[in-house]
Amino acid sequence: MELQPFALYATILIVTITLLKLSRRGRRRDLPPGPRPWPIIGNLNLMGSLPHRSIDALSKKYGHIMYLKFGSCPVFVGSSVAAAKFFLKTHDLSFVSRPRTAAGRYTTYNYSDITWSPYGAYWRQARKMCLTELFSARRLDSFEYIRVEELRRLLRDLFASSSSTVVLKDFLTTLSLNVISRMVLGKNYLQAEEGAVVTPEEFKTMLDELFFLNGVINVGDWIPSVRLLDLQGYVKRMKVLSRKFDRFLEHVVDEHNARRAAEGEGFVAKDMVDVLLQLADDPGLEIKLSRNGVKAFSQDMIAGGTESSAVTVEWALAELLRRPEILAKATEELDRVVGRERWVEERDMHNLPYIESIVKETMRLHPVAPMLVPRMSREDTSFEGYHLPAGSLVLVNVWTIGRDPEVWPQPDQFRPEQFVGRDIDVKGQDFELLPFGSGRRMCPGYNLGLKLIQASLANLLHGFEWRLPEGTTKEGLNMEEVFGLSTPKKEPLEVVVEPRLPAHMYVM
C-alpha cells in the first residue's frame, strides 16, 4: 500500500529524529562519565567558590577522567597521575593551546604574554626567549646577589619586629617583589618615594587582583550570548586593572629606552626588560616583539615570580606551626649543616634534604595553581576508550592528585618524611607532584621560583623561633584558601618571631 505524502514525510521525520538521538547517545557514551549538564549553563551550577574542591568532589563520584560542560564548552578533567601524564606528556602537543578568555584578552595585552598566548609561532618564540635568555641558568646565577641582598633585608626587618605580632605575607610579598623588581626592571620601582607611579601597597593590591581575575570562572567566557552583559562585573574590573598596569609599565619602558639612548653603543643590558627591548629590535625574530609584548612579558614575570614564592612559604610556615615536631627537625638540620654563625646560601640546599622535603610537601598539599592554567585541545584524541574532541577545555586537578590515597599514604596530613629518600622532584617529570606543571606549557621560571622558596624558608627557620600570637592555638589556625590563578590563605598568617642566632648576625 502506498503512503500518502503527509504520512511519508512524517515517517521520514520520525526516522531522522530517531537516528539523530541514537547518534547523540552513541557519541555521549564515548565521552567520559560526568554529571548531566543543565541547558545553557552546563555544569557551571556545580562550581562553588573553590572550584578545585568542587571538581575534587565530583571526581570522587565520576572518576579520574571526567566530562563536564561550562556553558556550551566541553570540559575534560584529569585527576590522576595517569591522566596528568596523558594530557601533559604523552599528548602534550594536542593540549598545548590556551582558551580565549576575557582575562587573557584584557589583562595580558590581548594574549601577548607567555601564559595566555595561544599555541603558534609567537608562543614558540616566546618560550624559546624564556628558556635561552630570560631564565637561563647563567642569567639566574648572575642575579643571585640580588636575592641574597633582599633576603638579608627581610631578615633584618623581621628582627626589628621581634616579639610583636606581624602579618607574615606582607614581609614575604615585599621580599618577592623587591627581588623580581630588581631582576626584571633593574631597580626597586616599588619603594615608597615622592612621585612614584604606584605605591607598594597599590602594587600589591594590583597583583592580588590580577591573580584573582585570571582564575575566576567568568560566565561570559563560556556562554557567549551573555558575554556583553558582564553579569559578574569581572570584565569591568579587568579593564580597570589593565589601565593601572599599563600606566606603570609604560613608565618602566620609557625609562629603559631613555637609558639605552643615553648610553648609545656602550649600552649593556642590566635586567630582563633591557633584554626584552634588545630582542624587540632583533630583525632576525620570526615574529616581531612589539612594545605591548615587552610590557606583557614584564608583567608576567613580575606577577609569576612574586606570587608563587610568597604563597608557598606562608603555607609552609602555617603547616610547621601546627606541627612543632617537624619544625624542630628542620632547625636541627639547619644547625647541624649550616651552623649558627652564618646564613643559609642557595648552594647549601642540596645538603638540606629535610628542608627540601618540607617544600615539596607544602607544594603537594597547597599547590599555588591547584588546577594549573587551563589548556585547550587542538585535535581529537582518545583516552582509556573515551573520545576527547578538539576544541575542548582541559583541566588537570593537581590538588586532587596530591591527595590521592593510592599515591600518598595519609594524604591529608603534612608529612615531609615521605619525601626523604624518595626520588620525586618538582620539575615536571614526576606526575605525582606538579606544582609548576609539565610539558611545553610548564612554568618557564620554575627554577627561579624554587630558589626563592627554598632559600627564603630555610633562612626564616634558621634565623627565628616561631609562635602563634596569644589567643591563637595551632588547632584553631584557619587553613582555608582563596581561589584564583593562585591559592593563598584566606586569612593571612599572623606570627610572633624571636631571633635564635647571635645578635650580630642580624646587623647587615
Automatic annotation (TrEMBL):
Query: Keywords on this record?
Result: Heme, Iron, Metal-binding, Monooxygenase, Oxidoreductase
Matching PROSITE patterns, A to Z? Answer: CYTOCHROME_P450
Q: Which residues bind heme?
A: 443
Cofactor(s) for this UniProt protein: heme
Keyword Amino-acid biosynthesis applies: no
GO BP terms in the entry: secondary metabolite biosynthetic process
Q: Per the database entry, which stretches of residues form a coiled coil?
A: none
A Pfam family that the UniProt record links to this protein: p450
Family annotation (InterPro entries)? Cyt_P450, Cyt_P450_CS, Cyt_P450_E_grp-I, Cyt_P450_sf
Q: Which top-level group of life is the source organism from?
A: Eukaryota
- Which family does the similarity line name? Belongs to the cytochrome P450 family.
Record-given protein name: Cytochrome P450 71A1
User: What is the native source organism of this protein?
Assistant: Iris pallida (Sweet iris)
